[in-house]
Design goal:
The complex is a heterodimer of chains A (330) and B (212).
Chain A lengths: L10 H12 L3 E4 L4 E4 L9 E8 L16 E7 L5 H11 L5 E6 L2 H16 L4 E6 L19 H14 L4 H13 L1 E7 L19 E4 L10 E4 L3 H15 L4 E9 L5 H17 L2 E9 L9 E8 L2 H8 L2 E2 L4 E2 L2
Parallel strand pairs in A: 3-4, 3-5, 5-6, 10-11
Antiparallel strand pairs in A: 1-2, 2-4, 7-8, 7-12, 8-9, 10-12, 13-14
Helix pairs in contact in A: 2-3, 4-5, 6-7
Chain B lengths: L2 E2 L1 H29 L4 H18 L5 H15 L4 H16 L5 E2 H19 L9 H16 L4 H19 L22 H17 L3
Antiparallel strand pairs in B: 1-2
Classes of the chains: A alpha/beta (330), B mainly alpha (212).
Chain lengths: 330, 212
């Protein structure tokens, strides 16, 4: 294992201290393990709290700031945060209008956020939860834990964040978050596995000429293994899987997201293929993101996320945002 | 009839922490095959926290020991295993109440309460390839040993053996809960990491009650 770390057990604490030093716009609560906006809660505004295992940076801490999250709760690498830290973050950002929990659909995240919501409820804080489950690679059935939350989380945090910033109430912000999730689908591909600092070796093995299709964001194996194919074919596989699940039409928001170990030039190669496929199917890319927005440590590969926009969602996407990971219009 | 005191429950947790520590790499490897390679790492952190919590604030009753352990596991473990094991211990604690000593019948009721809490929180049933596949036969074996007039030490050993049988049964199963379920048919052929850690917990119980 080769990593820029001091010691495997110190990675999260060291990284959080680094975030604190790099971003004066954030307050990093080092002991309680959560990140908030430096200014404290905005009076009367619905608070947005998300969190999950670390290793997906800039998600979630990098999306704390104006127009997006109020707090993020980083767990250990690829491990969900614990109820105490989520509870502390929830209480810290409640400005009287209630708090929305944005939770990626993994058993651990769902259970820990659920326990935190109960603790906050005991304190009289109103909490609504939205579970993001956009990954079409997982069969959505009673035979699985349900679809994973992946790329759509970035869209949900941005759009719900914009609505909250405009003064929408908790029910409205939660409904918008659910709408974004329902209109979004993702598919991921890995070219290499990744290594947890504490484990010291990769979560799975891939031969030089192999790729893992339908991969998640935790270094776990995906749905199937195949011979490495040209970027164009990979993009087609991903978009066909998405289109089969949710027919695409009209205006869409597209994200070609790097998993952490893929250079931007390759993401643009994928984006070209995505743009051609969508235009060939009569779909208009109204907005896009190309870059590393929800990563899986140093995994090579990418995910493609598509959201079917409405005029309201487009307007909220365009609203000003100022966070370490996403900023425009302000 | 044998009874277990607070000290025995304390030793159960210390022994569990020791077994988890000794098997942490194996648990993580099992998790790497069908999950996200952190089960041993997380559970080691959780049980270390439980041992520390008991050392800092000694519990007065068996139920209090389990309540402290449940809280520590929920606070420090993370992942799904923290809330699941933590809830199991808390339900067992409530079942024991304020009793200063625990009979084999009370221990059986506490184990059953733990499994009920775990099943409810995880919404998992037998055959889903989870820790429930180790817990369920273990509790049944414990109960039938006690019902048949067996001693407490016999019953805890039967529970640990049955949990091991349950663990072996998970190899052939396709996961329907938790992260392994994402693999579909590819989850077959591997032991479930949660069932494996359940075996350690029940083996530790058998060890500390062997002399009773």
């Amino acid at each position: 294992m080769k990593k820029l770390i001091n010691a495997p057990d110190d990675v999260l604490a060291d990284a959080l201290a680094g975030v604190a030093a790099a971003h004066p716009s954030l307050t990093v609560h080092l002991d309680e393990r959560f990140i908030t906006r430096a200014g404290g809660p905005t009076p009367g505004k619905v608070g947005l709290v998300s969190g999950g295992g670390s290793g997906h940076e800039p998600l979630h801490g990098g999306y704390v700031g104006y127009g997006m999250l109020d707090a993020a709760c980083p767990g250990e690498v690829f491990t969900s945060p614990v109820p105490d830290q989520i509870h502390a973050a929830t209480t810290a950002v409640d400005a009287g209008a209630g708090v929305l929990h944005i939770v990626k659909n993994y058993t651990g995240d769902v259970l820990n956020f659920q326990m935190a919501a109960e603790l906050a409820d005991d304190d009289g804080v109103r909490v609504e939860s939205v579970v993001v489950n956009d990954d079409v690679a997982v069969e959505d059935s009673t035979w699985t834990a349900g679809r994973r939350g992946t790329g759509a989380t970035v869209f949900v945090e941005k759009i719900a964040g914009a609505a909250a910033e405009r003064g929408a109430d908790l029910a409205t912000v939660a409904a918008l978050a659910r709408e974004v999730n329902e209109r979004s689908r993702s598919f991921g591909v890995a070219l290499t596995p990744c290594t947890l600092p504490a484990a010291g070796k990769p979560g799975f093995e891939l031969a030089d000429d192999e790729m893992e299709l339908g991969v998640g964001i935790h270094g776990e194996p995906g749905r199937s293994r195949a011979k490495l194919a040209p970027a164009k074919e990979i993009a087609t596989t991903a978009l066909e899987a998405i289109h089969a699940d949710m027919p695409l039409s009209g205006d869409v928001l597209v994200m070609v997201n790097g998993m952490g170990g893929t250079p931007l030039i390759e993401l643009y190669v994928v984006y070209k293929a995505v743009a051609e496929w969508l235009s060939g199917h009569g779909v208009t890319i109204a907005r896009n993101l190309v870059g590393n927005y929800i990563t899986s440590l140093e995994m090579a590969g990418c995910s493609i996320t598509v959201c079917r926009l409405t005029p309201e969602l487009t307007e909220l996407w365009d609203a000003p945002v100022e966070t370490p990971g996403l900023r425009w219009g302000r | 009839m044998s009874v277990l005191d607070t000290e025995t429950f304390h030793r159960w947790i210390v022994e569990t922490a020791r077994l988890v520590e000794a098997n942490a790499d194996r648990l993580t490897s099992l998790d790497a095959a069908i999950g996200d390679a952190d089960h041993g790492i997380n559970l080691r952190r959780g049980f270390q926290a439980a041992v520390t919590a008991l050392a800092e604030k000694p519990a007065a009753t068996p139920g209090a020991v389990l309540a402290t352990v449940g809280r520590a596991l929920i606070s420090k473990t993370g992942g799904a295993s923290g809330p699941l094991y933590g809830t199991g211990f808390r339900h067992a604690s409530k079942s024991l109440g304020e009793a200063a000593e625990v009979s084999e019948l009370q221990l059986g009721a506490a184990l059953a309460a733990a499994v009920a809490g775990i099943r409810q929180l995880g919404a998992a049933a037998e055959g889903d390839k989870t820790m429930v596949d180790a817990w369920t036969p273990a509790v049944a074996a414990y109960q039938s040993t006690v019902d048949g007039g067996g001693a407490l030490a016999e019953a805890t050993r039967a529970a640990a053996d049955a949990a091991e049988g349950g663990l072996r049964s998970t190899v052939e199963l396709q996961a329907r809960k938790g992260r392994a379920s994402y693999l579909g048919p590819r989850s077959v052929g591997h032991e479930d990491p949660g069932a494996a850690s359940t075996v350690l917990l029940l083996r530790a119980l058998a060890t500390v009650t062997a002399e009773t």
